[in-house]
Design brief:
Chain A is an alpha/beta fold and 252 residues long. Chain A has a single domain, classed as P-loop containing nucleotide triphosphate hydrolases (Rossmann fold, 3-Layer(aba) Sandwich), CATH 3.40.50.300. Chain B has 14 helices and 19 strands. In chain B, the strands form two sheets. In chain B, strands 1, 2, 4, 6, 7, 9, 11, 12, 14, 16 and 18 form an eleven-stranded mixed β-sheet that branches. In chain B, α3 runs antiparallel to α4, α4 packs antiparallel against α11 and α9 crosses α10. The N terminus of chain B is likely disordered. Classes of the chains: A alpha/beta (252), B alpha/beta (483). Chains A and B meet through α2, β7 and α3 of A and α12 and α13 of B.
Chain lengths: 252, 483
């Protein structure tokens, strides 16, 4: 479904991605790990089409077609979802209004029937219950005054509503206590399915105890330094990232 | 007194006549201002002697005044002798015959606002309102219903003729003829406007809108509005229109006076979208308006809500004098400046009575090279014990060439009162835009969503239908401002 080939990208003159190759099939969950500054968040944002990153070489394809020329909203309408590491506040815009506008924009783009207020509300209530979210959150402004954990739950709620085909979750576990972590993981796991691919970006192995990945990639110095199964995550937990960086360094 | 029916007919005919029979005398009123011109305007309108004298007093006072320079706006000096102060209604020969002759930019805006073709013709000045709608009957039904309740809603000139006692009693009592340069000028040369009187204990059953007053078509550049709400009454008044109107006059100096008696409530909503000038800052209306209301007696309430998106320059401070004990003043404002627009706007809340309350919510949006200033005064007099004010001034910047400025003045003369002021300045951040777009919203929709969220506290004060229009208007105004 997602294929990244020899991807190079820079921001404000700094080269951050140095030739990423990564492939993600429908039905799979991959984890992307790596130390601070290795380029994980950059990769997530480049896939989603953030304009301040400049792709200098390589390609990203979704179902065989390049998406590099597409605007962020066009990628979203193709079923790409990014769960943000730092979800922003949008004062005065209620969560439910925002989500309905987003969902209907996507449905309209795909030629599907837009949901009316009642249909949407029913869907929203169902998914909010799944995420253990108080319905009053839905009428509060997007992320305004939300705690870190509430924001992350809200991201997953949005994912559950938008039902993307490819979800990239950027450090969705950071700032979560163990209970919230379980809720978030449960939300993600209900989204696993044959037609959907999920890329979980994380620092720690902890989240992967709840969301068991099919593959683990380790990013170092803007490249995939190593790919393995879930045991790689455990090795990293024990040994840290140092040895991978050294390996990557000696190869360069 | 004329019946609503016959007066409407008069109006319809008057326009017709003036279109065909050129009134030589009217058209040769020379440019410039003098006592003779003031007298002429007054006599054209068959005004009583006292009103002519009042205009003259204002004119003489105006001669002693100088144009204010304190607003944070810049414009070329206005030559007051180069303005024609009596504009007869346009002859048909000057009007565009079809929409094809109308500025295509204007038509594009109408289309974006979703204005039906018939209304477009009216707004562009191709035809009069009554030629398009069956508005004679609409307006008549409307008027009949109001007059059953004793409500007076008519043009200022009609009010002078039919309700001279009310006009004499209240005219100039809130904004005296000596008030300020532009208001004083208006007192001398005002063209026409609206008058509203709500009798004791009557709750006006509908929003009063100038839109339905078909004779409002040519109120001209010096408009004057007076609204009197008698004891225990309520009225909601809508001014303006979301569609930009074709207008040749550059200077607009209007005066609005509101009088709320005991337990009365006036809600005054404005959507102003006059021509702002082109993208190079050429042309556009100068909007120098004086709006003030007085809560004359106990427990009266006046609420101003404004959405200002038009005009090259806006200079406007809708204010409340809270004289009655426990009276309430409110000001909710959204002011947008884009391209080269400049706005210096805000409010004055003058607390005189005991336990008076005021709320100020101001939202300024600046885009492109727009300059937006909030200027507000909260004054609490010595006798206004136990009074409270809450002010919140938020500015939103789009791009890096625009500006936002806040000038809050607070004068409190007693210790039992509280005054709170909060101010924020924010930018539509790239983070917010990317977040919304990642969820599937187009860039325009993302901007609109964020801007509407910013204005929410003001929009929710507008009557429902007006609020929807205001949101649409905002999105058209800010089109292309980001990116």
């Amino acid at each position: 479904m997602l294929k990244i080939t020899n991807l190079h990208a820079k921001v404000e003159g700094n080269q951050i991605l140095n030739g990423i190759d990564l492939e993600l099939e429908a039905g799979q969950v991959h984890a992307l790990m790596g130390p601070n500054g290795s380029g994980k968040s950059t990769l997530a944002q480049v896939i989603a089409g953030r304009e301040r990153f400049e792709v200098t070489e390589g390609d990203i394809t979704l179902d065989g077609a390049s998406i590099l020329e597409l605007a962020p909203e066009e990628r979203a309408c193709k079923g790409l979802f990014l769960g943000f590491q730092y979800p922003v506040e949008i004062p005065g815009v209620t969560n439910s209004y925002f989500l309905k506008a987003a969902l209907n924009a996507q449905r309209k783009n795909r030629g599907e029937q837009e949901l009316d207020a009642m249909e949407f509300l029913a869907l929203l209530k169902e998914k909010a219950a799944l995420m253990d979210m108080d319905p009053k959150f839905l009428n509060r402004s997007v992320n305004e005054g939300f705690s870190g954990g509430e924001r992350k739950k809200n991201e997953i709620l949005q994912m559950c509503i938008l039902e993307p085909r490819l979800a990239i979750l950027d450090e969705t576990d950071s700032g979560l206590d163990i209970d919230a972590l379980k809720v978030v993981a449960n939300g993600v796991n209900t989204m696993r399915g044959e037609d959907r691919a999920i890329l979980v970006v994380t620092h720690y192995q902890r989240l992967l105890e709840y969301i068991v990945p099919d593959k683990v990639h380790v990013l170092a110095n803007g490249r995939i330094a190593r790919t393995g199964d879930k045991s790689l995550a455990i090795t990293l937990e024990e040994k840290g990232y140092g040895w991978i960086e050294e390996e990557a360094g000696s190869q360069a | 007194m004329t019946t609503p029916d016959s007066s409407l007919q008069d109006i319809a005919q008057r326009q017709y006549e003036e279109g065909f029979v050129t009134d030589i005398e009217m058209e040769i009123v020379p440019k410039g201002l003098s006592e003779d011109v003031v007298r002429l305007i007054s006599s054209k309108k068959n005004e009583p002697e006292w009103l002519t004298e009042w205009r003259l007093k204002a004119y003489r006072h105006w001669l002693t005044m100088t144009e204010p320079t304190w607003p944070k706006v810049r414009y070329n000096k206005i030559d007051y002798q180069d303005i024609s102060y009596y504009a007869a209604p346009k002859s048909d020969a000057d009007k565009p015959k079809t929409l094809d002759e109308v500025d295509p930019e204007l038509l594009k805006t109408y289309e974006k606002l979703g204005i039906p073709l018939g209304e477009q013709k009216v707004l562009a000045g191709v035809v009069a309102v009554d030629a398009v709608f069956d508005s004679v009957s609409v307006a008549t039904t409307y008027k009949e219903k109001l007059s059953e309740l004793g409500i007076v809603f008519c043009s200022f000139s009609e009010a002078v003729a039919n309700h001279p006692d009310l006009i004499k009693k209240y005219l100039g009592t809130v904004v005296p003829y000596t008030d300020n340069f532009f208001a004083t000028l208006n007192c001398a040369v005002f063209s026409d406007g609206s008058f509203v009187y709500i009798p004791k204990g009557v709750r006006c059953p509908m929003e009063l809108s100038t839109y339905f007053r078909i004779n409002a078509a040519e109120t001209g550049q010096f408009e004057r509005t007076l609204i009197v709400a008698d004891e225990g009454s309520y009225v909601s008044y809508l001014e303006g229109c979301t569609a930009p109107k074709r207008d040749e006059n550059q200077l607009h100096a209007a005066v609005v006076e509101l009088v709320a008696l005991k337990d009365a409530q006036i809600k005054y909503s404005t959507v102003q979208n006059w021509y702002p000038g082109d993208e190079n800052g050429k042309g556009g209306i100068f909007n120098f308006v004086t709006k003030r209301g007085i809560c004359k007696e106990d427990r009266a309430k006046i609420s101003w809500t404004q959405v200002e998106t038009g005009s090259a320059i806006t200079w406007k401070y809708p204010s409340c004098i809270l004289k009655g004990d426990d009276s309430v003043g409110e000001f909710y404002s959204v002011a947008v400046t884009s391209n080269w627009q400049q706005a210096d706007t805000g409010t004055k809340m003058i607390h005189l009575g005991k336990n008076t309350k005021s709320t100020i919510i101001s939202k300024g949006i600046s885009a492109m090279q727009g300059q937006n200033a909030y200027r507000g005064l909260v004054k609490i007099a010595k006798g206004a014990t136990g009074s409270r004010n809450y002010s919140q001034c938020d500015s939103l910047l789009m791009g890096d060439k625009c500006g936002a400025h806040t000038f809050p003045y607070i004068e409190s003369s007693n210790v039992s009162s509280t005054v709170e002021h909060e101010a924020t300045t924010s930018k539509i951040s790239e983070d917010q835009l990317f977040y919304a777009r990642q969820r599937g919203l187009s860039e325009e929709d993302a901007v609109n969503t964020i801007v509407n969220g910013f204005c929410k506290e003001v929009f929710r004060e507008l009557p429902m239908e007006f609020a929807v229009e205001a949101q649409k208007l905002l999105s058209v105004t800010l089109e292309g401002a980001v990116g």
